[in-house]
Design goal:
The complex is a heterodimer of chains A (289) and B (134). With 289 residues, chain A is α+β, with helices and mostly antiparallel strands. In chain A, 60% of the residues lie in helices and 17% in strands. Chain A has three domains: 2-58, no CATH class; 72-141; 144-288, 2-Layer Sandwich (Heat Shock Protein 90). In chain A, the strands form two sheets. A five-stranded mixed β-sheet of chain A has the order 2-4-5-7-6, with helices on one face. Chain B has helices at residues 14-24, 39-52, 71-82, 100-108, 122-133; strands at 5-10, 30-36, 59-62, 90-95, 112-117. In chain B, strand 4 (90-95), helix 4 (100-108) and strand 5 (112-117) form a beta-alpha-beta unit. Classes of the chains: A alpha+beta (289), B alpha/beta (134). The A-B interface holds A 76, 80, 83-84, 87-88, 90-92, 94-95, 114, 118, 245, 247, 250 and B 13, 15-16, 18-19, 22, 65, 67-68, 96-97, 99, 101, 118-119.
Chain lengths: 289, 134
């Protein structure tokens, strides 16, 4: 644009007309300059917004890719579990047929008990999956409200069964309020707290240190426990995936859904989550909103 | 068939083990059936027998999706234990999965020789035994 402007001015000068000599000419040149400056400004704004749009598109593309791969894992798991349950039903039914024909009522009774058990497990499974998908819809639809983080954490902790003494310290509170989706943040801290309880080191008192740090516009939540820790080398990639259980916690009850939900909730708020952990020392989650 | 067969079943699902064991017991050629609910336990037993050079099972039915160690991790570990020795046991994958990912992983490895879907059928067992042991 500037180039065209310069060329045009040079052409006018070459044509022999001395616009600078007259008042009207100078005004014309001035208007010309202003018009081009205006064009140039417009162009810059357009360029800037095109760049921003491109950034937004590629970041939502990335988000979509993550969602697809998560869904892929989720679907794989759901379909596998449901299929397993159905295969159990088929297997046990076939056995009933066989022992019915062989007139072995004792055996039929034994298999029927297993069949009832298996069907109940199948039903629980379906209910679990429905709960997760229901939560997703709820989360997406909810509006933002102002949430007092320490109050929320304390009220969740009061409802939980810690089984033995514990400490929750707010070591640093540069902010206390967060504008977020309540159902999500409630579930987020519920999951982090239950994990801290579940994977505590039984030899020491459970200590949870929470720091709320304001960094420019970012709100950082440091959530640190002194539990059994996670071997990040082998688990970093899979710990936020659905239905994955961490090895040193396999003897604890769980569904492998907690941290998957936590990450989902953070993502729903355009936040990020990081984790530091040392085996036998504890785990720290750093959430940025 | 000259000898009777020893079976291992490695699967975290006790319902599946109950069913497969019951099915195998119908056959004359079945000598023994040992089930493992954890891949690590099955691996430990096989490793022990390979190192002590004692009798290995003739057939190992191996599930894919198990917590802690899955079927393909089991195969990798076993491959290391074998260290180029030939495995006399036949390993049959027995899974509910028909997923592309699992079929591809099966095709890439060299230890397991069959990919079977659950529930195992009587005639499938007969044809597998004919194929590998006659």
């Amino acid at each position: 644009m500037e180039e065209i402007h310069r060329l045009l001015r040079r052409q006018i000068e070459r044509s022999g007309v001395n616009l600078k000599a007259t008042e009207d000419g100078r005004a014309l040149l001035d208007t010309l300059d202003k018009t081009y400056k205006h064009f140039e400004d417009e162009r810059k704004i357009l360029e800037e917004s095109a760049k921003r749009m491109l950034e937004r598109i590629s970041s939502s593309n990335e988000n979509l890719l993550t969602i697809i791969s998560t869904l892929d894992g989720f679907n794989y798991h759901v379909s596998h579990d449901l299929k397993t349950s159905m295969i159990h039903t088929v297997s046990l039914s076939k056995m009933i047929q066989k022992y019915q024909e062989a007139e072995n009522p004792e055996k039929v009774k034994e298999i029927l008990n297993k069949l009832v058990n298996n069907s109940e497990n199948g039903l629980n499974l379906v209910e679990k999956f429905l709960r997760i998908s229901q939560f997703n819809t709820q989360l997406v639809e909810q509006d933002l409200t102002t949430i007092n983080i320490p109050d929320l954490i304390n009220s969740i902790a009061k409802e939980l069964d810690f089984k033995s003494p514990y400490e929750i310290n707010f070591a640093q509170t540069e902010f206390t309020e967060l504008n977020a989706k309540e159902v999500g943040i409630q579930s987020l801290f519920h999951n982090l707290l239950t994990n801290a309880i579940k994977y505590r080191e039984s030899k020491r008192t459970l200590k949870i240190d929470i720091r709320l740090v304001q960094n420019g516009r970012d709100k950082l939540i440091y959530f640190k426990d002194n539990g059994i820790g996670i071997d990040l080398e082998s688990n970093r990639d899979k710990m936020f995936k659905p239905f994955v259980r961490i090895e040193n916690g396999l003897n604890k009850e769980g569904t492998g859904v907690g941290l998957f939900l936590v990450k989902k909730i953070v993502g729903e708020h355009n936040g990020t989550i990081k984790v530091n952990s040392v085996l036998d020392e504890g785990t720290e989650f750093i959430i940025t909103f | 068939m000259s000898e009777k067969l020893d079976f291992f079943i490695i699967d975290d699902s006790d319902v599946n083990n109950y069913y497969t064991e019951d099915l195998l017991n119908e056959f004359e050629f079945t000598n023994s059936i040992t089930t493992f609910l954890k891949a690590t336990e099955g691996l430990a037993e096989l490793t022990k027998r390979i190192q002590e050079k004692t009798k290995l099972p003739d057939v190992v039915f191996l599930d894919i999706r198990m917590p802690e160690m899955d079927g393909f991790e089991f195969i990798e570990e076993l491959d290391e234990v074998l260290d180029d020795q030939e495995l006399t046991s036949k390993i049959f994958i027995l899974t509910s999965s028909k997923h592309r990912r699992d079929v591809e992983s099966f095709e890439k490895q060299k230890i397991a020789c069959e990919f079977l879907n659950k529930p195992l059928e009587k005639n499938e067992i007969i044809s597998m035994v004919d194929k590998h042991f006659s």
